[in-house]
Every structure is written in structure tokens, then in C-alpha cells.
Amino acid sequence: TKEQFESYINDNIKKSTLNITKDCLDKGIYTFGNTSGLKDVIKKAINKEEITVCTFGGSITRGASHHLPPKEGLECNFEPKKYIDVICDFLEEMFGCKTVRINAGIGATDSVFATHRINEDVLKYKPDLVINEWCCNDGAQFIYKQATYESVVRKLLQSGCALILV
Questions:
Q1: Most buried pick, 33, 48, 83, 111, via CB within 10 A?
Q2: What are the CB-based long-range contacts (under 8 Å, 24+) for 134-143?
Q3: Measured between alpha carbons, how far is 34 from 19 in angstroms, rounded to an integer?
Q4: 0.90 exceeded by the pTM?
Q5: H helix runs in the chain, sequence order
């Protein structure tokens, strides 16, 4: 249940070395949407089964500049990591499961390009979870990108993986 999951997460946050707080988690969620796919991922994690996680997007997903120190005046109490590492480290530490990490981020690409590489770069790995991010490269000025973004999302959902949209 949602209550059991929250209790499990709260207990593990207390033990975490990742500097994650409940407040951070709450602020990081815009909407839960349909969480049925995530339920299967969490079940596998609790059972300590291997989980294949794929991040799919542009340069932010790839991890561009993740290794640079924070800009002057900004404080950072953690080591900057790529999306794939943050998510997999979280799953491994919280649940004790193993993860397979697929980083399908390529800088300066958009959902138009994604429609041509989704099979080879993502779906062939049969991921349990995909984090899909095109926020910088899918500008609103191009109306056709709404259709290509939707095409990518539909194809991911049809594959049966859990999906997080960033």
C-alpha cells in the first residue's frame, strides 16, 4: 500500500548516506500519474531482483558538466552525479537490489531523433524503468515535436516498462 511504501522509504531515508530528505523527495514530484508500472519495479527491488534502468534524453541526461564544481556562490553538499547514477544508487541503497545502468543520453538531440534511436538505444535492453527527458531540446516553437514526444512516450508505454517523465 502507499502507507507501507512511505513507511519503508522514511525508515530507509534515516539510514541513507545519499543526503536525501523527505522534503527533497516531496518537492521533486509534480504528479504521480499512473504508478502501476513503478509498482512492479519496486516489487522487484524489494525482492532484490536485478532491475534494468535506462535514462533517455539529451545532454542533461547524458551527464554533461556533472563533474564540474558548483558555480560560485552555490553550495553543494553532495557529489554531482548523472541521473542514471542517482536513481540506481538510490534503488541499490534503499532496497539492496542490483541495477543494470543504461544511459541513452546524447547531447543536442531531441524527441525527433529519439524516435529513430529508441529501439536500438533503449528497447533492446528491455528496461524495467525508463526516465525520459527532452526538456531543453524540445522547444515549444516546433509544434511537430509534440507529436514526436508523444510517439516516444507511447512506444515506451507499449513496451511495458515503468516510465518517469522529466
A1: 111
A2: 134/57, 134/58, 134/110, 135/60, 135/166, 136/58, 136/59, 136/60, 137/58, 137/108, 137/109, 137/110, 137/111, 138/110, 138/111
A3: 27
A4: no
A5: 2-15, 22-27, 36-46, 59-62, 83-95, 111-121, 144-159
